[in-house]
Write a structure and sequence with these properties.
The complex is a heterodimer of chains A (134) and B (287). With 134 residues, chain A is an alpha+beta fold. Chain A is built from two helices and eight strands. In chain A, strands 1, 2, 3, 4, 5, 6, 7 and 8 form an eight-stranded mixed sheet that branches. The two termini of chain A are 28 Å apart. The chains are: A alpha+beta (134), B alpha/beta (287).
């Protein structure tokens, strides 16, 4: 699989090195929108928004729920510093659905004193988790 | 010379103390192993974070960003990481000394304490304790660090504090721990260690969104990661320090027990000799 279209993807969390392998493409959400990165991307630093991270390695596709952090893109290497990231196997679907409903309700009610930004963020996180599982 | 009974009692008490220190040493050895592993695992993240932020700052130069300038307030916040429990040698007092002997004015400081020992000591010296996060040190999690840095950044943004420092014990290896004082905000780019090749490859870095906004988002993460790194290292150092302290306590007890055993045997021999002399003297008197 030594393909010159591949690059190294490193995903690091505060607790561990989450992922480190050669891949052909990676997709994730940034606050500016969704991006897909191949080899030889221009150097760039992006801020991550909650969403599904898709790693494509030839035929193999794996997904994870990525919630916060930033990514440093270099032509032959992508480093994602993730504050929170989970494999689908680590996600508690019931809990995610519950928190999605809770967040939706909070946004709908729009009661004074609710932190709307926080509610929205937690909704986004829950949606990302659910999508990663499915 | 102390009586045999006294020596025996003393020896017994030292022996049971030794058993405790030995057990504590074993416990902290196990804890140290775990904490060390954790500290090593998270190191990759901080190194990366540190490099990224530094290369960002090197590239963006003198931005007029609020996080890069000292606030108007003369107050300085110090996050002080110590332990909740004592018996760890100079671990806690070294951190406290770092604050009291540093070039800070007592009136300017606001202490954000993590760890009961440091909080109590600084409180006794008359420092202002703003918050106490002592539960965090038992099981530091990234969430806790996020929470603390959020509080700090809010106060910084509100102009209540002008500078933020972190006082913690860095973990070099099992026996060497170093009390450190780190400036969290305003961020000062370090350019001395940059090797030219690296800066060359990163000089073309682009940001999405723009520099200002990116800094807004990345600096809080940077502060959080430094606090978390401090916590993890401090826990490793605490257990290392306790292990060392308990190790020397155990060997000191061993020494004392040896000494007391010698005294005890001497006293025993003395009393036997005395008894014999008495018996012989008594027998002589009768015959």
């Amino acid at each position: 699989m030594a393909d010159d279209r591949n690059f190294i993807l490193k995903i690091i969390t505060p607790d561990r090195v989450f992922y480190e392998e050669e891949v052909s493409m990676v997709e994730f959400n940034t606050i500016e929108g969704e991006v897909g990165i191949y080899r030889n991307h221009i150097p760039m630093t992006m801020i991550i928004a909650p969403g599904v991270l898709t790693i494509t390695n030839g035929e193999e596709v794996s997904e994870a729920a990525l919630h916060a952090g930033f990514a440093e893109v270099l032509p032959d290497q992508v480093t994602i510093l993730a504050e929170i990231i989970e494999w689908p196997g680590e996600i508690d679907l019931e809990r995610a659905e519950e928190s999605m409903h809770r967040a939706e309700e909070r946004i709908k009610e729009h009661a004074p004193g609710t932190d709307m930004k926080r509610a929205e963020l937690s909704l986004k996180r829950a949606v990302a988790r659910i999508e990663a599982v499915k | 010379m102390a009586s045999m009974r006294d020596i025996k009692r003393r020896k017994g008490s030292i022996q049971s103390t030794q058993q405790i220190t030995k057990a504590m040493k074993l416990v902290s050895t196990v804890k140290l192993q775990r904490a060390k592993q954790r500290a090593e695992q998270s190191k990759a993240y901080f190194n990366c974070m540190y490099e990224t932020v530094n290369s960002m700052l090197a590239k963006t130069g003198n931005l007029n960003h609020p996080y890069l300038k000292a606030g108007d307030s003369a107050k300085k916040a110090v996050v002080v990481i110590t332990s909740n429990r004592g018996l760890a040698g100079g671990y806690n007092s070294n951190i406290v000394k770092l604050i009291t002997n540093g070039d800070f004015q007592k009136e300017d400081l606001i202490i954000y304490a993590i760890g009961k020992k440091g909080k109590d000591a600084l409180h006794r010296y008359g420092y202002e304790i703003a918050r106490d996060y002592s539960d965090v040190i038992e099981e530091p999690s990234y969430m806790d660090a996020m929470h603390i840095s959020q509080t700090l950044l809010d106060s910084f943004a509100a102009g209540e504090i002008g500078e933020i420092y972190l006082a913690y014990t860095g973990f070099k290896n099992t026996v060497v721990h170093e009390p450190k004082l780190l400036k969290l905000l305003p961020v000062e780019p370090v350019q001395t260690e940059d090797n030219p090749q690296e800066t060359g490859s990163k000089a073309l870095m682009n940001f999405e969104p723009e520099d200002d906004e990116a800094l807004d988002l990345i600096i809080p993460k940077y502060v959080t990661s430094l606090i978390y790194g401090g916590l993890v290292e401090a826990v490793a150092s605490e257990n290392g320090a306790r292990m060392q302290a308990m190790d020397s306590a155990t060997s000191n007890a061993e020494e004392m027990i040896d000494h007391l055993s010698l005294m005890y045997n001497r006293a025993r021999q003395g009393s036997i000799t005395q008894e014999l002399t008495e018996i012989i003297a008594g027998a002589n008197a009768i015959s």
